[in-house]
Amino acid sequence: MLKSLNRLLTLLILCIVVVSGARAADLAASIDSILNNPELKYGVQAVSVKSLKTGKKLYEHNADLLMIPASNFKLLVSSTILEHLDPDFTFETRIFSAGKITNGVLNGDLIIKGGGDPVLSTSDLTALAKQVKASGISAITGNIVADDYLFDRQRLGTAWTWADLHYYYSAEISALNLNRNTVDIYVRPGKQAGDKAEVSLAPTTNYFTIESATTTGAPGSRNTIWVSRAMGRNILRISGSIAQDAKITGRETLISVSEPQLYTGHVLLTELDKQGIKATGEVITARLPDDSKLLAIHKSPPLSRVLWLLNKPSDNLIAEVLLKYIGAHVNNDGSASGGAEVEEAFFKRIGMDMDGISIADGSGLSRLDYISANNLVTLLGYMYTSKHSKVFIDSLPIAGVDGSLYSRMRDTRANKNVRAKTGYIGRVSSLSGYVDTRSGEPLVFSIIMNHHKCPKSSATALQDKICALLADLE
User: Fold this and answer.
1) Any idea what the Cα angle at residue 430 is, between residues 428 and 432, rounded to 5°?
2) Which of 48, 50, 74, 363 is catalytic?
3) Cα separations in angstroms, 202 against 43, 170, 182
């Protein structure tokens, strides 16, 4: 009887091994076929797939090769900051007075000190200005001081493309940020064809010089408006034509700003004026004096919400600010390299291959960022079981539902199933995250494509095919 049971158990194990081996072989052949698509010719692809149930690798292709990850790099800063801060942590922006207040007049400076809030908005400055008014101040004889010294003075990431620096996705980095360090540009037609077009900014501020050569075109004519910013300067250059009958429903575009802490200070000056508080000084950058008095405070949304705002739409500025913040928080080093040291210590602890990673920035905008697909799978595997797993996974786009995966995989079993971070820069496309098989087995995967000459849409379509294949596994 015992021998019969042993034979049955042995046969059962053999069947499981055979089925498992056949499954892996079929999966490998299917993914290989997708990667052999002619549109990926001359490019390099790295793929890693692992079962979170059994811990077994189901597929590997160039999985230890160093690859440029694009915005998949945001997974690194998202996971690291959750290791050091609770999901309900908030960033604080504070306003102080330096000087005596007599009969409502502050005889000294008003200081706004940045605490690394990456999502501070104009409405938040409005609320701070109201708090200043409630403190009894009606006039300021000194300067508006912007203190962003929590971070270093390096405004840009390493090896960012200079031609992109006026675009919103290459915004400068500061511990005192406003509106993602961008300004909205509105262009409206004049009354008659040939008239100069009207250019306005939101928020309203005198921080910028506007050089406009825009004109009003004939009714029905094509919009040829072009907006740029002078390199390293806050000079906005607008040219082109807008039709006389154009219906304006929103901004023309948004442009990054230079020295965002001063931008914040200038907008605060405008908001103070709206509250009836007159300031006669200048907006400058300086450190908070030791004898300053706290007047107002603004707290950001919780970190859990900030991570949602980071990963769903893939926000570069938030990633860069969080990288410097973890450096400042852990090692009193508010620099990208300081943040990278904190990341590397975490990655080493969880078993990532430290030879398979190189960190240049937090967002993945740099082409000097490198990581292997296996390392991303290791990181995602750890986060799947971490104490803040739900917060982390909830921050990722959902296929066919939201964020940068809103329009992808809708007609497949991956729809509403895959939760993954997208990534894209020129000739780079990536997707790493989680998917459940047809039987409910959770898988973690990483797909990184480099140097392909096909359009981005072709690369993402192939990624979607791999995800659909994983979702269809029994």
Assistant:
1) 165
2) 74
3) 43, 19, 10
pLDDT tens for 242-256 read: 999 999 999 999 999
| Identified catalytic residue from 304, 314, 363, 429 | 314
pLDDT at 22: 45
Helix, strand or coil, per DSSP, at residue 461: helix
Q: Could you say which of 48, 50, 71, 113 is catalytic?
A: 71
Same fold, 27-88+304-471 and 92-155+259-301: no
For the structural domain made of 27-88+304-471, what CATH number should be given?
3.40.710.10
Share of residues in the chain with pLDDT > 70 (%): 95
> Which pairs from 247-252 meet CB under 8 Å and 24+ separation?
248/186, 248/187, 248/188, 248/189, 251/184, 251/185, 251/186, 251/202, 252/185, 252/186, 252/187, 252/225, 252/227
Q: Tell me how far apart the alpha carbons of residues 303 and 86 are, in angstroms, rounded to a whole number.
A: 7
At residue 24, does pLDDT exceed 70?
no
Burial class (CB in 10 A: 0-12, 13-18, 19+), 1: exposed
How far apart CA 215 and CA 198 sit, in angstroms, is 9
Does the annotation mark 458 as catalytic? no
* Other residues' Cβ atoms within 10 Å of the Cβ of residue 23: 13
Is-catalytic flag, 74? yes
**Claim: this prediction has a pTM higher than 0.85:** yes
- What are the backbone dihedrals phi and psi of residue 253, each rounded to the nearest 5 degrees, phi first? -170, 180
pLDDT for 18 equals 40
Domain 92-155+259-301 is in which class? alpha beta
71 is catalytic: yes
List the alpha helices (DSSP H) in 36-100: 74-84
Task: State the residue for tokens 């309900």.
Answer: 88
Domain-wise residue ranges, the chain:
27-88+304-471, 92-155+259-301, 165-256
Tokens of 300: 């950001």
